[in-house]
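In the current project phase, our protein records have gained a structure token line. A sample record follows, to show the layout:
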Amino acid sequence: MRAPASDLPLVLANASVLRRDVAILNFITLTIAPGPPTILIGPNGSGKTTLLRVAMGLIPLSGGNISWGGRENASPERRAITFQRPAMLRRSACANVRYALGAAGVPRGQRRNRAAELLTMVGLDALASRPARRLSGGEQQRLALARALARDPAVLFLDEPTASLDPYATKAIEDIVEAVSTRGVKIVMSTHDLGQAKRLAGNVVMLHRGRLIENTPATEFFTKARTEEARKFIAGELLV
């Protein structure tokens, strides 16, 4: 994987997204820099998924600005994203990865070996020939990670990758996230799981009703949150 993070820092300045006059993101100012994972937390409807899609370049802003590595309107060649419910191509796990490698411009002669490396990285080498749609939910998420890593990204956005997974599958995803992060890929990941945020986060970004509530190193967030909303969320109280 390439170490230089050319799409970083990712900078949002007063970024807003409106849908039918409702603010999904409300004047977000945020810098995402190289380093340990940034974990997005907040209740349902807080804007986490929208923020990830904006950062990937999939959703245009209604107001404000976004730049990647100092460039606006940059092509997303150094970015990749996985979704909570990844779509699997109707082919084997290995062929799914080879397709992603082709889409990323990897020469045909290199795809077989590279696909094998990626499947090994996510622990699916023994299932390379299995139809992707017959994999378990956790295995499909790992395959989605392998496909995303086929792009050799500098920054990888993960939208609730362990939602509805059992502890074993969740641990497998977290191990991959940590391994990828140590290789220099910036991870930006949303989760509802505060325990997961504690285990993975270098810093925590909390959203509520489309607003940025906190952007704090993880150790500080969980020991001395600055806002009442964050303290309530950590305590397990409902935010309305």
Q: What stands out?
A: The CA atoms of residues 188 and 233 lie 20 Å apart.
